[in-house]
Amino acid sequence: MMKRNEIEAAGRVMVALDYPDAAAAEALVRSLEGIPCYMKVGMQLFYAAGPSFVAGLKERGYKVFLDLKMHDIPNTVKGGSNSVTKLGVDVFNVHAAGGIQMMEAALEGVEAALSGDSSLKRPLVIAVTQLTSTSQSVLNTEIGLSGSVEEAVVRYAKLAKQAGLGGVVASPQEVQIIKAACGNDFKTITPGIRPAGAALNDQSRIMTPSEALKQGTDYMVIGRPLTAAADPRAALEAIIKELV
Ligand SMILES: O=C(O)c1cc(=O)[nH]c(=O)n1[C@@H]1O[C@H](COP(=O)(O)O)[C@@H](O)[C@H]1O
């Protein structure tokens, strides 16, 4: 039996199901049964297993973050947002780099879906700021944006807020400056989570789960520290213990 504070901590964790097919993802989901974390379906799994995998998670009562990082012309993002809202996902994301009009179009797509089906729940729409794999030097020299990563993240977060979105994806290192710029109710969803000693992989801007929580993050996205662990359930339980 999980204690109340453990249930609360688990509810902050979004497990990244980055797998090539439904069977592999399903094995991970089954190994975590009974732990009330979010399940995140990203492009690898969605492109392979599609809406039916998402529907299966929803039928079993999971909260689902559909991470497709939409970034296209406003009309296309409106249509994409309309479709994913009809899937009943709890959270989905677009790129803030698409601009205010594109993010507003995402919300229009949501509204159109909700007005056509009163049984649907309003999803939390969030914007990706600067990917957590982006370092300061890549931002400046390769992408060619001047200024600090933090300035870019806050600029994107303010655009997302202005467009009416409910929060952003960023590194835990930027949670405090985002909350200072956009208010405490503006949600932060933070990948780049690495328990002490875990491999960095392709992430750049990382923090441990407990450090991220101390920054005030609302949700933390965790993939390989769980999916590549010999015992993913034990790895998630250790993270939950670190958070309580
Ligand atoms: O939108 C995301 O979820 C996301 C944004 C970002 O800036 N960085 C980032 O890593 N992610 C996702 O978060 C997950 C992180 O996975 P791990 O690095 O394996 O923990 C992956 O599924 C990424 O697609």
Automatic annotation (TrEMBL):
Its EC number is 4.1.1.23. GO terms for biological process: 'de novo' pyrimidine nucleobase biosynthetic process; 'de novo' UMP biosynthetic process. GO terms for molecular function: orotidine-5'-phosphate decarboxylase activity. Substrate binds at residues 18, 40, 67-76, 132, 194, 203, 223-224. Pfam families: OMPdecase. The keyword 4Fe-4S does not apply. It is an enzyme of class 4 (lyase). SUPFAM superfamilies: Ribulose-phoshate binding barrel. InterPro entries: Aldolase_TIM, OMPdecase, OMPdecase_AS, OMPdecase_bac, OMPdeCOase_dom, RibuloseP-bd_barrel. It comes from the Bacteria. The keyword Membrane does not apply. Keywords: Decarboxylase, Lyase, Pyrimidine biosynthesis. Pathway: Pyrimidine metabolism; UMP biosynthesis via de novo pathway; UMP from orotate: step 2/2. One of its GO terms (cellular component) is cytosol. The active site is at D67 (for ompdecase activity), K69 (for ompdecase activity), K69 (proton donor), D72 (for ompdecase activity). It catalyses: orotidine 5'-phosphate + H(+) = UMP + CO2. Catalyzes the decarboxylation of orotidine 5'-monophosphate (OMP) to uridine 5'-monophosphate (UMP). Homodimer. Belongs to the OMP decarboxylase family. Type 1 subfamily. PANTHER family: OROTIDINE 5'-PHOSPHATE DECARBOXYLASE. HAMAP family: OMPdecase_type1_B. This is Orotidine 5'-phosphate decarboxylase. It comes from Paenibacillus baekrokdamisoli. The gene is pyrF.
